């Protein structure tokens, strides 16, 4: 019996080759209320959405230098929602005039057996944390204001300790590769938040020490 | 003592100079010390000039004495004045002092003489009362003057107050720019860009995806002549809306018989009068609302035309200029058009069609608006928000598609397959089918009198489904003959009929099918009525058939027949009723009544004459009676002999 004709070319386009445009900033705890108020006015008119997520970062160490990082995240407030697996590539070294950080991004929904599968595949959990805060949207723009907490005992998400006295603000858009107008929109939106929070592109590779 | 820390003692020399003033920044201004000549002058003041200069050898050195001349003894006046011809610097001083002393002595003498009253007495001078003005008039004049000054001050103040109150009233009437801006901001989104105030009247923040920006500009209305009277509808604020949103627009949905020619498509230009604005609304509000309505109508029409072009259907939709034409049913045409008038043009005279009042399907127009808003809301619903927060936006059920391993059928059932146009066409089809059904039932009810047809429409309907209960009864016998009760469920393309006895028939959208069906049901009703009547009258049902296979073939439905026998068995009535052939009633008489039957030689017994024999047809049209069942009752009564 002949094998059915199957295309062996890799899948391109569609939702596979998405880039994430990212701008980050932070606010102190005291300024949170005014920032939320401002975001409610600027973003789409919806009920404010809070979230509590638990993220685990898995590393696969190969023979080469850079380990392969995967992020597995699930919601602690919506327990029936599926897990979310995310791969973030290296930030694109484009022209310096681009206002946002651009990197390749792959998002996959997974069932609740995700940690076991990753363990079996050879990934080892590097660190985990709990994030809770608010999510806003404006068209395709997503604004996440989150407070990160460290998990003291691995696996126990009840016992957490706040990492800092401030909230992390992230402005992100998922768009197919090649759309540069997105970063313009992001920059103009970030301008409107200017005195409260300064959103800028922070290169993660420069953070490592 | 060694453990106690040393106490610091500060020593400051006492101020040699006197402080005259301490400035605000702490600098001290000292009284400047006296110069040499000033110091000398000060000392010279203390010199006693009573002692002459040539007595400096004998007399004791001059003592500094106080200068209080009033306490001085009269001995001083005996002091001789020694005039020194030589000019020494203190000469003039001395002379002045001497003369002063003389004057003081004189004064002292006078006072002492007056006091003793031995040598001189003082008498007051009497005053002439008539000399000078009278004190009352003088007082009056002075009072008048002072009152006049006070009054003038008060008047000035009152004038100022009056002016300011009038100005306030003027301002409030003018409703100045800032308060209008505040009112505008409470209802519309505004932002400041540079030195311009821009606003947003689009539905983007409510979930729309239409690419129109929808920005309007707020302008200060400064062309007002303050000297002339301000007009009633003056507003210090004006808005400038984009040029393509000017005027007003609405969507017109109508169903017509298919036009024979498609020559004048896209010329829908009927326009109704502008609705009157409510008193008290600001002109800018009216303008902005109209512009927003135009924008929404444009969005709806753009969505509909996009779907009309993209979606494949059996009969393609036609999109011409501002009109979309589609065919819900053969021979029928649904047209959706966007009527936009900019307001400044005069209405086009001589439009080809007269505006018929029921041409507009207002319900569908309203539904179009509602569907669009629902689409907007759905884009903003919290179902779309991701949990966990790092996941992309999207419906939460679609996120489960991967982990739960949905197959293609499940995924397609999740996704919305129906667009706006399809929904509206379905709704239009249903509305049309419902109105046609109602028309059919009503026309039958008005034409046919004998079995009466009643329709009870249910109040609560769906956009895609309505229901009506149809009862076929005979007048006067409603309680007895109620076997035909039909429940019609009118859907989008079909009508489902549920009979009382449980049968379900599905009719298509053809009008004729429903009419034929109802006619056949009416004819069946007559026969059922005879059956029920027989029970009441005490007659026995010998045979009953809903669909007889004998006799002429009916083109609509089938004929039904019944045979009933009287209580004593002597008579029998046979009825055959068909929708087309009408009713035929035959009565079976006993043999004894048949006069022309030949006497048989085999059958001799008289008891056999009681059996029923030949049939005779009844001239039904000549029967007395209002309707079929009444006639039947009369017939039955006539054939039942009274004991």
Automatic annotation (TrEMBL), chain B:
By its UniProt entry, which InterPro entries does this protein fall under?
Answer: Mediator_Med17
Instruction: Write out the biased-composition intervals (Basic and acidic residues).
Output: 62-73
Q: Which GO terms describe its biological process?
A: regulation of transcription by RNA polymerase II
Pfam families, A to Z: Med17
What is a single molecular function from GO for this protein? transcription coregulator activity
Which Gene Ontology cellular component terms are annotated?
core mediator complex; mediator complex
Keyword list, A-Z: Activator, Nucleus, Transcription, Transcription regulation
The segment annotated Disordered runs over: 45-82
Similarity comment text for this entry? Belongs to the Mediator complex subunit 17 family.
Its function? Answer: Component of the Mediator complex, a coactivator involved in the regulated transcription of nearly all RNA polymerase II-dependent genes. Mediator functions as a bridge to convey information from gene-specific regulatory proteins to the basal RNA polymerase II transcription machinery. Mediator is recruited to promoters by direct interactions with regulatory proteins and serves as a scaffold for the assembly of a functional preinitiation complex with RNA polymerase II and the general transcription factors.
Q: How does it assemble?
A: Component of the Mediator complex.
Query: Protein name, please?
Result: Mediator of RNA polymerase II transcription subunit 17
What is this protein's gene name?
A: med17
């Amino acid at each position: 019996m002949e094998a059915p004709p199957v295309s062996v070319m890799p899948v391109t386009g569609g939702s596979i080759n998405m880039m994430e445009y990212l701008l980050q900033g932070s606010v102190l705890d005291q300024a949170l209320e005014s920032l939320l108020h401002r975001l409610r006015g600027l973003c789409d008119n919806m009920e404010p959405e809070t979230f509590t997520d638990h993220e685990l970062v898995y590393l696969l160490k190969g023979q080469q230098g850079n380990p392969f990082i995967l992020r597995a995240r699930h919601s602690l407030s919506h327990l029936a929602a599926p897990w979310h697996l995310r791969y973030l590539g290296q930030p694109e070294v484009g022209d310096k005039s681009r206002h946002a950080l651009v990197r390749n991004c792959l998002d996959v929904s997974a069932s609740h057996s995700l940690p076991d599968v990753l363990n079996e595949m050879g990934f080892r959990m590097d660190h985990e944390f709990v994030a809770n805060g608010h999510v806003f949207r404006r068209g395709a723009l997503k604004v996440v204001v989150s407070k990160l907490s460290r998990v003291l005992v691995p696996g126990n998400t009840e016992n957490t300790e706040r990492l800092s006295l401030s909230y992390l603000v992230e402005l992100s858009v998922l768009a197919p590769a090649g759309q540069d107008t997105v970063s313009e929109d992001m920059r103009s939106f970030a301008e409107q938040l200017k005195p409260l929070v300064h959103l800028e592109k922070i290169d993660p590779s420069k953070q490592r020490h | 003592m060694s453990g106690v820390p040393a106490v610091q003692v500060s020593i400051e020399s006492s101020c040699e100079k006197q402080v005259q003033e301490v400035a605000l920044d702490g600098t001290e201004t000292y009284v400047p010390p006296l110069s040499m000549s000033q110091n000398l002058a000060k000392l010279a003041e203390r010199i006693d000039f009573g002692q002459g200069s040539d007595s400096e050898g004998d007399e004791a050195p001059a003592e500094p004495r106080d200068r209080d001349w009033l306490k001085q003894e009269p001995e001083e006046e005996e002091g001789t004045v020694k005039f020194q011809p030589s000019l020494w610097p203190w000469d003039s001083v001395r002379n002045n002092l001497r003369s002063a002393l003389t004057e003081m002595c004189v004064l002292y003498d006078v006072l002492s003489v007056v006091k003793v009253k031995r040598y001189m007495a003082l008498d007051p001078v009497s005053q002439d009362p008539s000399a000078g003005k009278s004190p009352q008039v003088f007082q009056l004049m002075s009072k008048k003057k002072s009152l006049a000054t006070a009054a003038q001050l008060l008047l000035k103040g009152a004038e100022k107050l009056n002016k300011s109150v009038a100005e306030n009233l003027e301002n409030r009437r003018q409703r100045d720019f800032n308060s209008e801006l505040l009112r505008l901001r409470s209802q519309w989104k505004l932002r400041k860009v540079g030195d311009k105030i821009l606003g947003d009247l689009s539905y983007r923040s409510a979930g729309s995806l239409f690419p129109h920006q929808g920005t309007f500009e707020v302008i200060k209305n400064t062309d007002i002549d303050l000297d002339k009277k301000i007009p009633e509808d003056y507003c210090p604020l004006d808005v400038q809306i984009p040029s393509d949103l000017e005027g007003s627009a609405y969507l017109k949905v109508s169903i017509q018989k298919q036009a024979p020619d498609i020559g004048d498509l896209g010329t829908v230009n009927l326009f109704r009068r502008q609705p009157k604005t409510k008193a008290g609304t600001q002109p800018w509000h009216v303008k902005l609302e109209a512009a927003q309505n135009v924008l929404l109508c444009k969005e709806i029409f753009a969505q509909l035309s996009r779907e009309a072009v993209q979606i494949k259907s059996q009969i393609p939709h036609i999109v011409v200029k501002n009109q979309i034409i589609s065919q819900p049913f053969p021979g029928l045409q649904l047209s959706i058009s966007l009527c936009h008038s900019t307001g400044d043009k005069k209405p086009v005279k001589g439009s080809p069609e007269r505006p018929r009042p029921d041409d507009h399907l207002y319900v569908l127009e309203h539904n179009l608006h509602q569907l669009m808003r629902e689409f907007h809301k759905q884009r903003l619903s919290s179902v779309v928000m991701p949990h966990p927060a790092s996941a992309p936006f999207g419906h939460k059920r679609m996120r489960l598609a991967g982990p739960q391993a949905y197959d293609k059928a499940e995924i397609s059932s999740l996704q919305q397959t129906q667009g706006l146009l399809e929904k509206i066409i379905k709704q239009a089809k249903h509305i049309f089918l419902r109105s046609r059904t109602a028309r059919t039932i009503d026309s039958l009810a008005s034409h046919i009198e004998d079995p009466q047809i009643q329709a009870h429409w249910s109040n609560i309907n769906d956009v895609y489904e309505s229901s009506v209960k149809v009862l076929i009864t005979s007048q006067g016998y409603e309680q007895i003959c109620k076997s035909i009760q039909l429940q019609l469920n009118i859907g989008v393309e079909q009508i489902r009929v549920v009979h009382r006895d449980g049968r379900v028939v599905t009719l298509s959208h053809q009008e004729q099918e429903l009419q034929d069906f109802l006619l056949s049901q009416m004819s069946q009703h007559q026969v059922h009525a005879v059956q029920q009547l027989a029970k009441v009258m005490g007659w026995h049902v010998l045979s009953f058939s809903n669909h007889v296979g004998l006799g002429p073939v009916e083109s609509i439905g089938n004929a039904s027949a019944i045979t009933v026998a009287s209580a004593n068995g002597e008579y029998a009535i046979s009825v055959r009723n068909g929708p087309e052939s009408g009713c035929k009633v035959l009565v079976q008489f006993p043999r004894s009544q048949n006069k022309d039957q030949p006497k048989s030689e085999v059958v001799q017994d008289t008891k056999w004459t009681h059996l029923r024999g030949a049939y005779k047809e009844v001239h039904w049209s000549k029967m007395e009676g209002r309707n079929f069942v009444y006639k039947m009752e009369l017939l039955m009564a006539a054939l039942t002999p009274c004991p």
